[in-house]
Amino acid sequence: MAGHSQFANIKHRKGAQDAKRSKVFTKLRKEIIIAARSGPPTPDLNPRLRAAIASAKAENLPKDRIEAAIKSAQGNAADDSYEEITYEGYGPGSTAIVVHALSNNRNRTAGELRHIFSKHGGKLGEKGSIAYLFDHVGLVVYKAESIESFDALFNLATSLGAIDLEEGGEGEDKVYTIICSVEDFGKVRDGLYAQYSDGELAKLSWRPKQKVQVDSPELCAKLVSFLNDLEDNDDVQYVEGDFAIVG
């Protein structure tokens, strides 16, 4: 019986891992479709698509599924008619939360997110309910080790219209984050990519004007559970908040 129990546990773990992997693949496929529709369906001419494909390859999404997603973007299938939606609300401990989703059914997604927020003691808000707590900006991130001259990067970024350049991390994890307005994001990203090739990350982001330090073990556990449920939702691409878990 012990051997049977061990085998059952292994099957259960593998099933959970496969389910998680499937969710990741679903999110990657959606991003590829949206990216392919945002410009030319050719990676060399579409930086967002190029970044989406790079992310998919990093997660080992099969090549045939990447190509199928790009092809699907050129069709009119209702199931692949995704729209980008931003949701705002308050999570555990009155933390401000921004959820970025890709959905083909706005009502379904809103209902599912409302349930998750409510389940964890939060509340899904109206558009603009917490936006004043954040700056909506564009971000382009490079590993510091890939940049020969910080000054050259700074000068190019500012000439393209960047607002700021931040340093973060240490050693191999050190990165440079270029910050720009939403309006200048495409110009800044494309100009940097032309000089330094693609970065680690390029996206529009809601950056909190002030972060709340969360050091309560109980609240930390509630936030982790809440975020896990959000990320388990197939329509949720990523989540941002005004808190930093410490300790």
UniProtKB/TrEMBL annotation:
Gene3D superfamilies: 1.10.10.200, 3.30.70.980. Residues 5-76 form the TACO1/YebC-like N-terminal domain. Residues 82-239 form the TACO1/YebC-like second and third domain. One of its GO terms (biological process) is regulation of DNA-templated transcription. It comes from the Bacteria. Residues 1-22 are annotated as: Disordered. Keywords: Cytoplasm, DNA-binding, Transcription, Transcription regulation. GO terms for molecular function: DNA binding. GO terms for cellular component: cytoplasm. InterPro entries: Integrase-like_N, TACO1_YebC-like_2nd/3rd_dom, TACO1_YebC_N, Transcrip_reg_TACO1-like, Transcrip_reg_TACO1-like_dom3, YebC-like. Its main location: cytoplasm. It is found in: Cytoplasm. Pfam families: TACO1_YebC_N (PF20772), Transcrip_reg (PF01709). Belongs to the TACO1 family. This is Probable transcriptional regulatory protein AOV_02500. It comes from Anaplasma ovis str. Haibei.
